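[agent] plan:
  1. take the single chain provided in the ticket
  2. run structure prediction with default settings
  3. attach structure tokens to the ticket
  4. add a short note for the reviewer (M.T.)
[agent] executing step 1
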Amino acid sequence: METKKIKIPEISDSLLKERMEKIKFVCPAMQGTDGKIHNTDEQDMKLFDLFYSISNVNPRTQAFNFDENRKWGEKASGIEIVQKLRIFVSIGGYYGFCKVTMAEVMAQIPEAVLPFVVAFSLDPEEDVTIINGDYQHLPIILYRKCEILPPPEGLPKFEGLILPLSLKKANKFKEKIRPMINYSDRGLTFIDPGDLEKPFMKLGIWLRINGSNLHDTNSETPAKEKLSRGEELFIYLEFGEEGADFFHPSYAAIISQIPEEFLTEKVVGFCFKFVNYFKTQKGVIHKAKFTLIEKDIS
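[agent] step 2 finished; step 3 output follows
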């Protein structure tokens, strides 16, 4: 496609202001059990909600999606998708980024749906495409008002899912039972618990699985003795300071959630398997699966 065939429609200041007063930018986010709103790359609508994103950048010259000072507004309830489309965006700066202005969005909303549109978002399921050295094609989603639906039924309660942090318990087991990871090329490896209240491993939850090479923090020791897999357990944890899309557990946080009756003399470690999100009545938390590792006495 040649540049000369691309033309972003012009929009007057008065029309831009009028449309911006009516049509708001919304973003997918997760509300934790602490009430805080967290950015997320999650694409499963059942696990996130849409929230208004408030930005005060210049609507013609500055990209609202790169505004480090934008704030979260209230949850965008009572809206539904009316149309998905792609708009033209002028490339500004590094071509690997897609910096879009409010003027570019507001000028390209189709006339057929314009009377109904009250919000828009960037489409997380579609990639931005580069047309040439001057323009990109950006996928967006337009929303209209709809009936406000009641909260989904059957969401589990949050109360009782997470046990209190126990440093006494962590100190009791830190020399006997250590965190582990399963490297595809080296097998089971112990991870030094380190500071009991700081992460012993770090990963981005969007990986979902735990193949290997997820941890980059504490020192490792390959397991030399013969081991076997024991009980598999789900452990629930609230989001940390790093946000919803990151899982950075500490030794104390994990060991506090494992019932002591499972921590027998045979158990020498607990191996991370995978992590996902878990929506409760109070908010979203992490749900991680661990396997207890035991001395093989067979």
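[agent] step 4 note for reviewer: Residues 3-145 form one domain.
[agent] ticket updated
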